[in-house]
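Q: A reviewer asked whether we had any structural model of the full assembly, not just the individual parts. We don't, so I'm hoping you can provide one. Inputs are below.
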Amino acid sequence: MTMVRTPEELESLKQKLLAAREPDKPRVSVCCGTGCRVHGSMDVIEAFRQEIDKRNLNGDISVVGTGCHGFCEKGPVVVLKPSGVFYQRVGLGDVPEIVSETVLNGAVIDRLTYVDPASGAKVVYEEDVPFYRKQQRLVLDLNGDIDPTNIEDYIAFGGYAALGKALHQMKPEGVIEEVVESGLRGRGGAGFPAGIKWRLCREADGDTKYIICNADEGDPGAYMDRSIMEGNPHRVVEGMIIGAWAIGAHEGYVYIRNEYPLAVENLRIAIGQAQEYGFLGHDILGSGFDFSIHIRPGSGAFVCGEETALMASIEDRIGEPRPRPPYPAERGLWGKPTNINNVETWANVPIVIDRGGELYSQIGTDKSKGTKIFSVVGNINNTGLVEVPMGTTLSEIVYDIGGGVPGGKECKAVQLGGPSGGCLPREHFDVPIDFESLQELGAIMGSGGMVVCDEDTCMVEFARYFMDFVQQESCGKCVPCRLGTRAMLEVLTRITQGEGQEGDIEYLEELAKQIRESSLCGLGQTAPNPVLSTIRYFRDEYEAHIRDKHCPAHVCRALIHYSVDPEKCTGCGRCLRNCPAEAISGAKKEPHNIDQEKCIKCGSCYELCKFDAIVVE
Amino acid sequence: MDFQLAFDASEIDDLLNGKRDGGNGSLMDVLEEVQARYRYLPRDALILISESMGVPLSQTYGVATFYNAFSLKPKGRHVINVCTGTACMVRGAKKVLERISERLGIQPGETTEDGQFTLETVNCLGACALGPVVVADGAYSGEMTSAKTDALLKEVMSEVETV
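A: Here is a predicted structure for the entire assembly that you could use as a starting point for your response.
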């Protein structure tokens, strides 16, 4: 067992590990994040191990399964080090060739390289891939290099050095000052300055204090926290230990979504290893400070991302929020002063301490410092995790990094901040993104989910979807949220079913105002945002549904119908065979016909037709 | 219906023995284990757990009905979970969900009468690059279309006959 007792011992362990690493030795780095795993990366890694074994190259080439590299669209992703050759969509059959050609001979296999959709050029090296080139990776920097289940990988890259610095060269108050100076703001949604929150908790009365890591990443379409925990869990653990020392807590909890089995597993392993090496437990790094971390898997309730509901859940009660004040810094978990930050915020802490607050504060905008990780998803070419300095524009993220919208379609809007956020249309894509600018435009940073919508997205249906979401996830404790969201959902559902009436938009706006002002917690207070922002920017779509009974995006079932263009139909029979309602008839090689009475508007025929002969109106 | 495991009080007792002294924060752990064992929370188990842990039954029942992970009705042998996160939705998850719902003849949250299938939705699995995503008995399938959904259902249904 390697117990590390002092910062000096940590430094010598790091040097020893670095010396053993042999930087020139070939390494195959395979992404094993959730996305790549679904694409089969675990089999790919096994194939590499077998191939290397078969060639008796075990001592010469190492294979490392890393956490999420962030470029989920192209999984399984393989990077060959030290050259940095980048291969995407690697299959089992490619493995022997990669070993013989690229690893041993340095030759590049053309078919596996990434082709930039914008220029059509082949990109050989990871650092040249546009998706990565324009990012500034502070938090995700090590995800492609380290094995998240091996603490020594993290230590070799300087891990836990910030903890040593905090414990031995700084006072708790000094740590807090550093975090205040850095300008680090909570990455979970509201953007409250982390250092100030810490100070409140430190100064609160009481001997027993707790810290909590909010890993209940509930916003659909946001998965940066999961990827941090999967790919570099030790950075979160290190951030929590530093925070606990600064605040004066001896116990911490990670409240984590149960839908993230791999993140739970990697975090468990990380906590176990941190204990083994002496970074958790008694007398951490010889400082006399004791701290331990417990994992608390959530049981599937979106509202538990709200801090008071989250604490109720840890206390084994139903996850209902309570009014604030008192804020958790005064009365939190089991009535004790408690500090809650989310995963990405905790992961930034070692970076702040390592660089110093002043240097950190040079990144970002005037009021929003550092980087932010966005998960760019939906109708976008390069789905993945994008870490950029605050102040980057949407246009840079969607087009330069995200590669634009697939299928030659136009980007209609970007939805930011999940069910509490809003949609921004293209005319605002050049606004530098930070906490303030987004709020002014009617969206929020939220946790950083960024859903790109193409022209085929119906904004009314989109708003209805979010309202349905919050209505289901409303805990039911306060009336405005419980009944108000239901009333809004009813109106939106009517509109999408072609039964909208004059005055509906105004009624929605009025309901929204009431719900915003009178709900108990953040869930209700922000629930109307998706509706308000779509009304603000896409009012014409609402009006088309209500007045013309027309869905401009051809999405709402009640307002569309499918027919066959006899000019284009070849009578191949593909749609006929696959129609679940048996609504299509027609002889072979003759134009087919859709029986409107029988048609359930499932869209299978439209999806399947190779001749664009199905018309939707 | 033989798919339903018979409730065994001694099993719950064993589970509780390890937790009784656990102090704070163990009720949900116990419920999770019972849910995993029986695929639901039997009524008698809730009563037994409450009595043994000294937690009011109202609180146990409240927790059991508040969280999505718990169910008071037995879940099917095969669980099909459709991701309805935003990214999957804009890529067509609604159609996929409707397709499965039509084919199985049940609504999301329901179980088929023969106890074989439960259809569920999940808010987001974070596998957004693969959307729409369907998870059948823990196995992920990505980039689902109507045709791929039919193929997946055929595969899952064929397992029923061989059981």
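A: Points you may want to mention in the reply: Residues 75 and 114 of chain B are 11 Å apart (CA to CA). The helical segments of chain B are 9-19, 27-38, 43-53, 57-66, 86-90, 93-104, 146-162.
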